[in-house]
Amino acid sequence: MVFASRRDALTGLAATGLAAVIPRSPAMAGEKLASVVINGMPATPSVVMARLIETGALARFADKAQLKVWRTPDQMRAGVVSGEMAVFGTPSYSCANMRNRGVPVRLMNIVTWGLLYLMSRDEAVQKIEDIAGKTVLMAFRNDAPDLIFRMTLRKLGMNPDTDVKLQYVGTPTEAVQLLLAGRASLAVISEPAATAAQIRGAAAGVTVRRTADLTAVYGRLTGRPPRIAQAGLGMREDFLQANPELVRAIHQGCIESARWVLDNPAEAGKLGAATLDLAAPVVERSIPHFRLDVVAAADAKPDLQHYFTALMEMSPDILGGRLPDDAFYWGPAA
Length: 334
What we know:
Blueprint: H1 6-15, E1 36-40, H2 46-55, E2 65-69, H3 73-82, E3 87-91, H4 92-100, E4 105-112, E5 116-120, E6 135-139, H5 144-155, E7 165-169, H6 172-180, E8 186-190, H7 193-203, E9 209-213, H8 214-222, E10 231-236, H9 237-242, H10 244-263, H11 265-276, H12 280-286, E11 292-296, H13 301-314
Parallel strand pairs: 1-2, 1-3, 6-7, 6-8
Antiparallel strand pairs: 3-10, 4-10, 4-11, 5-8, 5-9
Helix pairs in contact: 1-3, 2-10, 2-11, 5-8, 6-7, 7-12, 11-12
InterPro entries: TAT_signal, UCP027386_ABC_sbc_TM0202
Organism: Rhodoplanes elegans
Protein name: Sulfate ABC transporter substrate-binding protein
């Protein structure tokens, strides 16, 4: 399988000096920024960012704090390379790939430790091994969901290119629509779309089962805890250098906001509904399924390197040919 994609073209711009540079921040002179934008991912972890903005924890650093949610990984990568996105939700491997290809980024933290599930309408599929010879819907080709699914199948001794038929779609929402319409019986779906599939299915009289937790399956096969350092926040280097205290505040705010989300799922569901354009009960019920635990990248480094090494065993190009350097892993003491 060839893993080269639009990410290579996008990140290649940085090496040629075409990436726009964020203007030097007024915070360097002790002044507040006019605004700070966190560009969240289209998944349940963005509820943490929404809570961070709601608390006003960044008010002493910026007059205005905003959360915007990107739609696709390609949109996120393009925004980071151009300089438009300075703080961004990202699959951890994608941030590492960008750095290895010359984009000046670092990983701030990990927020979710696994949120992918095999959802099924097929009664014959009771465990992941039962999917041999079947068609599976998958969003975001060559990105984290696809890579983690392939990584897991390889550990099972299956060839993801020949033992199953992967049918790629644009987004998790599209996968849910096709699954509920009966045009597919199996799909790998991230949260909160996985929970949405179950809730919407129940309303339509369709049973959608959470057949396999890919994170738990991978942990079982590797003898590790059910945790994959899947996604968190990244940042551009120029933003970090201009605003080190703001970065620390964002990270600490994520820790505190994550506690609130876990302790207040109903309120978090309402907060996340507008952010993710989903019904509040969907967001609320998805919260237990995305392994929320905010850990600084420096502290998560052993888990990240294990995950990155497993990805590189499939293809070194996934990480841009090597593990990222030590400076990639930000920590609050840095």
